[in-house]
DNA sequence: TTATCATATAACACCCGATTATACGGTTTG
DNA sequence: CAAACCGTATAATCGGGTGTTATATGATAA
């Protein structure tokens, strides 16, 4: 019927009064404006201007149309702004699913970096087991997932986005703090915090102990490294944690000591195979890699 | 940036899933859709679809844009509807200024006819003296004016839109009702309703009496024919009224009798010279003419 | 393998919306 | 009154966005 360009020309002419100044404002020639108005009048069958003494006088109808067109212009600007924000990565929604080990420490920190300066960005973070994460990804409820274990799900792809190892943390002044490295067996000699045998970390540590013919003995049992860290910081004992959990954490109330034997861990990023990965998720992944790469 | 057509194609493809069905819905060929999408992606620099196994899978970004575009489409439809309503004369605002003689009888009746079936039409009617009417027109407060007297104002044009004459009305069973015509002098013999000497009608009637060397004598004085009509209908007496006031009025409680000598009157429509007359005003004028022409 | 469906590419056509150049009517001005 | 100026309209033309048909390519189903 009548298109946005025609409405734009119409309202501009009404605003500034002459085709000449309207043409200047619109950055086109005067005949373009003149022709457009005539064409629009023919198209919609409404007289938009009276030609009085060589001047254009807008009719009431033209004024009404121009007024209503303002709402259309608002929406045009809105869509343009949203498109621009998407391109600049500052708009969109990103849903992240993570295992508690990562979701309570490293991931929130990366989100914090990622979201600064992008107020229109909505990030939501869901915690869950590896199976829950896979289900969320497969069903489109989450865009990207992070866990220390590898997913086994046909609709979920994965890739390593960070390599690290288990390290020992202890309060400042603890005997361990003066050692360059400790053996896992040493842990049994001091009160320490460890993980439920039902968790991946607990199983991994148990495996290492088992190889040495030992049995893990600990004072406090937790499920997540973030909890263990807080307990160590509170002075309750030492703990084995993944090196990622220490990234960005101020070191004034924690000492870090290497562990023998090395227990390598890797962070797996997971993405759904059934849906295209959003560009927002991809750029989040990039940011994630720079963080873990800098201090894995 | 991104235009409405591109958004339309985008949302259609997302809705129906394939370029082929989108092309059908949009009434264009499949390559047109395919090219448009590619072109849009290049234009805005955002990947809108992933090409997976020969199918197009919309990205999150595309979904978001399509969703926001709905508001734009709403406004487009709204503007189109308004344009159509204007063309069909069923939308707009029309302000009419009329003298009380017309504004209390004939004009409201024409407005009633004019506005039926056009719910979006706003008509306002202002009553006033001929000078007030002229001022309203000259200042753009009114679109069109109606009066029995001719305007004398440089910025107001006028034209006759109905010719009639003064007629005598009397209650059914009144002695006058059996006469084919009466003389003005006969009025002095019966109780009758007439007009203040300060009104145009009063002056006109006085002039006729004066030509016959008579003086007008009446029982009730009013200012408007509409009032006079009501009083006659109430049985208070007879009256001279303009023939327009009887148009459309049911005749069961009023008898109409011609008057000698004839007192021709005309209705003047007035329009501002400084502003273009709205098409709504012009079509109202047309309707007015058909009403007065049918039974002047 | 063949048939079918969906997308992409190539080559071409059309028309909208732009251009420049110029004419024309009105108002202002020396 | 003629000249200058302002604003609009017309003519002829151009370019690109958006369309077309024909066809290739790739994935899936029979």
How would you describe what is shown here?
The structure is a homodimer of 296-residue chains. By secondary structure, chain A is α/β, with parallel strands linked by helices. In chain A, 43% of the residues lie in helices and 24% in strands. In chain A, strands 3, 4, 5, 6, 7, 8, 9, 10, 11 and 12 form a ten-stranded mixed beta sheet that branches. In chain A, strands 1-2 form a two-stranded antiparallel ribbon. In chain A, helix 9 links the parallel strand 8 and strand 9. The mean pLDDT of chain A is 87. The interface between A and B is large, with 41 and 43 residues. Chain A binds a DNA duplex (30 and 30 nucleotides) through helix 3.
Net shape of chain A: rod-shaped
Overall tally of structural domains of chain A: 3
Question: What is the assigned CATH homologous superfamily of the largest domain in chain A?
Answer: Periplasmic binding protein-like II
CATH architectural group of the largest domain in chain A: 3-Layer(aba) Sandwich
State which percent range the strand residues of chain A make up: 15-25%
Q: What is the CATH class name of the largest domain in chain A? A: Alpha Beta
- Determine the CATH topology of the largest domain in chain A: D-Maltodextrin-Binding Protein, domain 2
Order of helices and strands of chain A: HHHEEHEHHEHEEEHEHEHEEEH
Multimeric status of the protein: homodimer
């Amino acid at each position: 019927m009548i298109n946005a360009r025609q409405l734009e020309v119409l309202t501009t002419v009404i605003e500034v009064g002459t085709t000449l100044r309207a043409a200047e404002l619109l950055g086109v020639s005067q005949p373009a404006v003149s022709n457009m108005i005539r064409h629009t009048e023919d198209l919609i069958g409404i007289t938009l201007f009276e030609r009085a003494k060589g001047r254009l006088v807008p009719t009431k109808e033209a004024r009404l149309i121009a007024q209503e067109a303002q709402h259309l212009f608002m929406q045009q600007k809105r869509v343009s702004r949203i498109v621009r924000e998407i391109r600049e990565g500052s708009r969109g929604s990103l849903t992240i699913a993570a295992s508690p080990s990562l979701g309570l420490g490293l991931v929130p920190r990366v989100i914090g970096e990622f979201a600064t300066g992008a107020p229109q960005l909505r990030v939501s973070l869901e915690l869950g087991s590896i199976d829950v994460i896979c289900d969320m990804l497969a069903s489109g409820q989450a865009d990207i997932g992070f866990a220390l274990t590898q997913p086994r799900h046909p609709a979920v792809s994965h890739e390593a986005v960070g390599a690290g190892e288990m390290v020992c943390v202890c309060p400042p002044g603890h005997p361990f703090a003066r050692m360059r490295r400790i053996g896992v067996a040493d842990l049994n000699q001091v009160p320490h915090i460890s993980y439920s045998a039902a968790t991946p970390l607990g199983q991994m540590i148990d495996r290492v102990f088992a190889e040495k013919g030992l049995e893990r003995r600990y004072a406090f049992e937790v499920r997540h490294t973030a909890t263990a860290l807080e307990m160590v910081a509170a002075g309750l004992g030492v703990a084995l944690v993944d090196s990622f959990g220490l990234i960005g954490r101020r070191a004034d109330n924690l000492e870090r000591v290497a562990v023998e034997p090395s227990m390598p861990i890797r962070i797996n990023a997971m993405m759904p195979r059934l849906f295209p990965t959003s560009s927002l998720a991809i750029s989040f992944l990039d940011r994630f890699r720079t963080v873990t790469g800098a201090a894995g």
